[in-house]
Every structure is written in structure tokens, then in C-alpha cells.
Design a protein that fits this description.
single chain; mainly alpha; 80 residues
Amino acid sequence: MKTDFNFPGKYLMGPVVFRPSFNEQSEEINVNQAWSLFFTAGQEDKALGFNTEAGRFFTNLLLAIGVSGIIWALLFNNIG
């Protein structure tokens, strides 16, 4: 099947993870890029900027919520 659709890159409105410029790098993404892709639903990988402190904050926040949830469940499971 042959399609005649050849849209230039400036007309693509899809997520950044499907763009050839993002996939051709074959580099690992950093923490900020991962969280930016998560918060923007894959639309932008530079939303949090280039400082890695924001990415570390969200990662540590996620870990803290998980650990406090486990401690909470263990504490109230043993009381009742």
C-alpha cells in the first residue's frame, strides 16, 4: 500500500517520543526529561528545563509517598 502523505516535520503535532529527532539520538534520557514526558503526556521533554534538581525532587517525592504508604498500611494493619 502506498500513501502520498509526506508531511514535513513542522506540521507534526504528535508526541515527542514519536518524532525522528528524538529517537535518532539513542541516548539515555535524564530524570528531568522522563518527568517532563510524564507530566506533559509525551508532548514535551524539556518542560522542566535542564536543572536535574526538579527531577530528583519528583523521584524522591514518589519514593517518600510509597514508603509512607507502606508504613501506614503496616501500622494500621497490626492495630486492628
